[in-house]
Amino acid sequence: MKLKTILKSSLGGLCVAACVVIYPHVGALGNEINVQITNGTMNPSNEDGVGGTQNPDLDPSREAGGLSSGQIPGKAHDVAVDLFGNRYAVGSQQGSNGYTLYKWPANAPAWQKMNAQAIRVTARPKQAWIVNAKGQVFYENGPVWRAVQAPPVKDIGAGRNEVWIVTQNDQIYRYVPSDHMDYMRNGAEETHRTNDGVWIRVPGDAVRIDLDDSDLPWIVDKRGQLKYFKSGRWMAINGPKAVDVTAVHPKAVQFVDEKGAASEYYLDTRTYRQVRSADQLIGIGGSNGQSLMVNKNLDIFVSR
Fold first, then answer.
1. Number of domains making up the chain
2. Which structural domain range is residue 129 located in?
3. How many CA atoms does the CB half-sphere of 88 hold within 13 Å?
4. By CB distance 3.0 to 4.6 Å, which of 192, 278, 280, 284 could disulfide with 260?
5. Cβ distance 50 to 255 under 8 Å?
6. Residue 236: which residues within 8 A CB-CB, separation 6 or more?
7. CATH code of 294's domain
8. What is the model's pLDDT at position 198?
């Protein structure tokens, strides 16, 4: 593939450069995108769907007043944590393609603004995947975001090696790159082809999805039922209705229920424990034993 850049200035000290695919199991996903930069900000009229105007006054690292127990600075609509403890947040400042995206690297003291906007975020090891307000999918490749062709998406989940999506009509797909077609399994139904692979339709419906670090998928279906995928079918978990789910360990998930409390479920023992209560939570994201939670005021809480 011929690589092309149209750099006009630097953005936050980073330069947009040629793409290199980092994770070969997922493969050379998506198409090259051109990011035009003018006066240090993403051009809000560009067609790549990532950038947009941003207001630094709403940087989530700026927090007025004190923090309650377990709270960290910032406001977010969605959050994620990767295997190495890098945190991601879809912030509160709205732009043309969603909300400003931030990253809190594991070895850093605070949030750092990223060159993207999103409505949903998930994370593989050292790599964020996002959905923007147009339902388009992008993944992080250094300072560059690469597009992945897909049906219009409303949620996305990534594990160590796999990426799954929930479309805007609640269908579930998993990605198979073109060099891993022999990896197709689990009773696939229909497909959505891209230039570099194929999205395989998985039976069932969902509103939220996540994968644990062993690539086991978990969903919240349209009725609020928590389920995991085994031998080509979804297995239901008895428990309260859920609104969001994140896989914090292999065979262990945390979820937010319809009352706004967070609990953890252990698949091996079929037991629960409560993580947070009475916080009016609406979202959760995590990995490797750490999770971030968001309440209706967009405050962010951390749990280990």
1. 1
2. 37-303
3. 32
4. 280
5. no
6. 225, 226, 227
7. 2.130.10.30
8. 85
Whether residue 277 is contained in a domain is answered as yes
| Over residues 282-302, mean pLDDT | 95
104 domain residue, yes or no:
yes
Other beta carbons within 10 Å of 40: 10
Q: Tell me what the mean pLDDT of segment 53-69 comes to.
A: 51
The answer to whether the beta carbons of residues 246 and 286 sit under 8 Å apart is yes
**Average of pLDDT values for 25-33?**
36
Spatial distance between the Cα atoms of 36 and 269, rounded to a whole number of angstroms: 52
Contact partners, residue 238, CB within 8 Å, separation at least 6: none
Q: Does some domain include residue 21? A: no
Query: pLDDT at residue 137 above 80?
Result: yes
Give the torsion sign (CA, 63, 285, 151, 146): positive
Separation between Cα atoms, residue 203 and residue 215, nearest integer Å: 17
148, β-bridge pairs:
137
Decide if 30 is inside a domain: no
pTM of structure = 0.78
Which amino acid is located at 246 in the chain?
Answer: T
